[in-house]
Specification:
By secondary structure, this protein is α/β, with parallel strands linked by helices. The chain contains 12 helices and 14 strands. Strand 5, helix 5 and strand 6 form a beta-alpha-beta unit. The N and C termini lie far apart (49 Å). Bound molecules: 1,4-dihydronicotinamide adenine dinucleotide (NAI). 1,4-dihydronicotinamide adenine dinucleotide binds next to helix 1. Belongs to the LDH/MDH superfamily. MDH type 2 family.
Length: 331
């Protein structure tokens, strides 16, 4: 039998946490034959709610779930974890300055980086979900220097899946027949959802999305803005931010990273830029990646047209500015 994998979820008493932990316990993240031990962290005001989630996990009698650690102690939470999904953070409240929110999150990610660095299992893989996701991941990377940079990522898979969903609805094809969209850059409204290399499985073979969606105007306009602003649209409709789709996408992100992407398919992940596609090195930026043997590789050599170039640069500029803001919070 396989040894259990320890999976940390921070902010586990929150909305995404509540959707995510049962998925992990059911094998959605790591596969139906992989036992797991859940580590759940939240802060003291949420301790009672967190314990309630633990009680429900016990009550659900998940066969794959071999243990639950529910704690407000960062060190206990991080000890020996193999996967860390960082959902906890400080939300932006009405009237708050961007810098104040950044400063709270920089402090959180700096201290959690140290705890992971000291106490997580060797080769622990980290996924940051909490916003500002790319910059929180960058801070985590900077303050956990012994964790290899290839092990630190942020979630843009939700945006990627949203783009697949929009194409599927537009063409009236199953979403599983659409592949190879790309989310470039920041998990924010400056992200660039790119369909220039995406394709659809049809009875006559694989066809480019560009050839099937005759309406260029839709591809250049509404498609992009719908994906960029989908988070806000969900908040408007639900009066709460995306949770089930965020949780499901976090599972997709880790599953593909650990178990590999299907042949001929890439996904989007926020990863440490090495300068590919002339994106400044040293940003956590969303790229198209393939995964094999537990490691991601940026897809190389895709032609980038002039319009796309501008959009890649715009979102990089925003990330550079966020990075500066984050650093100014450190001093
Ligand atoms: P939520 O407010 O329901 O839950 C957040 C939880 O984090 C709360 O239980 C809170 O007590 C906890 N928390 C706060 N500080 C913490 C700390 N220092 N350590 C551990 N836990 C802490 O929020 P929700 O809806 O679950 O969203 C979580 C985060 O995910 C937010 O930052 C949100 O903006 C982000 N998000 C990111 C998405 C992405 O695609 N990257 C998509 C959707 C949400």
């Amino acid at each position: 039998a396989k040894q259990p994998v320890r999976v940390l979820v921070t902010g586990a008493a929150g909305q995404i946490g509540y959707a995510l932990v049962p998925m992990i316990a059911r094998g959605v993240m790591l596969g139906p034959d992989q036992p797991v031990i859940l580590h759940m962290l939240d802060i003291a005001p949420a301790a009672e709610a967190l314990n309630g989630v633990k009680m429900e996990l016990v009550d659900a009698a998940f066969p794959l779930l071999k243990g639950v650690v529910a704690t407000t102690d960062v060190v206990e939470a991080c000890t020996e974890v193999n996967i860390a999904v960082m959902v906890g953070g400080f939300p932006r409240k009405e009237g708050m300055e961007r810098k104040d929110v950044m400063s709270k999150n920089v402090a959180i990610y700096k201290s959690q980086a140290s705890a992971l660095e000291k106490h997580a299992a060797a080769n622990c893989k980290v996924l940051v979900v909490a916003n500002p996701a790319n910059t929180n991941a960058l801070i985590l990377k900077e303050f956990a220097p012994s964790i290899p940079e290839k092990n630190i990522s942020c979630l843009t898979r939700l945006d990627h899946n949203r783009a697949l969903g929009q194409v599927s609805e537009r063409l009236n094809v199953p979403v599983s027949d659409v592949k190879n969209v790309i989310i470039w850059g920041n998990h924010s409204s400056t992200q660039y959802p790119d369909v220039n290399h995406a394709s659809v499985k049809t009875p006559a073979g694989e066809k480019p999305v560009r050839a099937l969606v005759a309406n260029d105007e839709w591809l250049h306009g509404e498609f992009i803005t719908t994906v960029q602003q989908r988070g806000a649209a969900i908040i408007k409709a639900r009066k709460l931010s995306s949770a089930l789709s965020a949780a499901s996408s976090a599972c997709d992100h880790i599953r593909d990273w650990v178990l590999g992407t299907p042949e001929g398919t890439w996904v989007s992940m926020g990863v440490y830029s090495d300068g590919s596609y002339n994106v400044p090195a040293g940003l956590i930026y969303s790229f198209p990646v393939t995964c094999r043997n537990g490691e991601w590789t940026i897809v190389q050599g895709l032609p980038i047209d002039a319009l796309s170039r501008k959009k890649l640069d715009l979102t990089a500029e925003e990330l550079t500015e966020e990075k500066e803001l984050a650093y100014s919070c450190l001093s």
